[in-house]
Amino acid sequence: MNKLYGVGVGPGDPELMTIKALNAIKKSKIICFAGKSEDSSIAFNIAKKAMPEINKKIKICIDFPMTKNQYVLEEVHTKISEQIKTLLKEGDVAL
User: Do 30 and 87 touch, CB atoms closer than 8 A?
Assistant: First the structure.
């Protein structure tokens, strides 16, 4: 069974990412990150500075809307969870 890893990038300095976070990225076939693109994702760019080989992974950008509208959030969260379930069929996923 494949695993979903929840990875934090720390306080913003790539040198402060934990070894456990970096190992989860290394183990994962697919890297998902919040944002509209690789260039605009703060978290992805922190991880990329800590581990440049992340670019060799399959990368999926996931847009999490910034809203308090419960209906929009439920719809988006359902869509994202289904997307991640599908990705997990291909291998481990780091989010």
Answer: yes
CB 92 within 8 A of CB 23: no
Positive or negative, the Cα torsion across 13, 15, 21, 27? positive
Q: Are 4 and 88 in contact, with CB atoms under 8 Å apart? A: yes
One-letter amino acid of 74: E
Closest by CA position to 28, among listed 3, 51, 65, 11: 3
Q: Determine the angle formed by the axes of helices 19-27 and 42-50, rounding to 10 degrees.
A: 90
Question: Each residue of 46-87: pLDDT tens digit?
Answer: 999 999 999 999 999 999 888 999 999 999 999 999 999 999
Beta strands, E only, the chain: 4-5, 30-34, 58-62, 93-94
pTM of the model: 0.90
